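Hi there, hope your week has been kind to you so far. Do you reckon you could talk me through the fold, stretch by stretch? I've dropped the whole record in just underneath, so have a look:
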Amino acid sequence: QIWLGSYMSGGVGFTQYATAAYTDNILDDFTYYGMDYLHDKYKIDVKNPNPKDKVKATQEVVNDIATEVNLYGMEQYEQFPTMLEDHFGGSQRAAVLGAASGITTSIATGNSNAGLNGWYLSMLMHKDGWSRLGFFGYDLQDQCGSANSLSIRPDEGCIGEFRGPNYPNYAMNV
């Protein structure tokens, strides 16, 4: 069942790879909102990056940034029903919300693990807010990594810098 659910929905990797190509600037909008939030709250000039502008990668910072960006995205989906129709299936919405949350968090902190945790926080918020992530109840692929995103034990996951193209959660099923 788990294998079939992940295979049929394409797995984490495919959902992200395919959705980013046709999101109709929606991912861009959510990410630009995040950049504006970073500028307003943390005084980060994303147009002229400076290593001194980085925010310390703490759980509070991840919670703050990912929550703000994710809630903005969810509100936009609710405000514009055609956007919901365009991103049919919860996996596509989950991927766009997660990507925007993760991108914004990574840019603010300069830390890939903080971004990954922003992604997974987005998944948990999405499920909490809308009761499901994937269509037909297949939401394993969208939540399968939050428990091991900071683990370095090879049987449970690797930190972002150690992950290779054959990392199990990110296999493309074509």
About this structure: The CA atoms of residues 80 and 117 lie 27 Å apart.
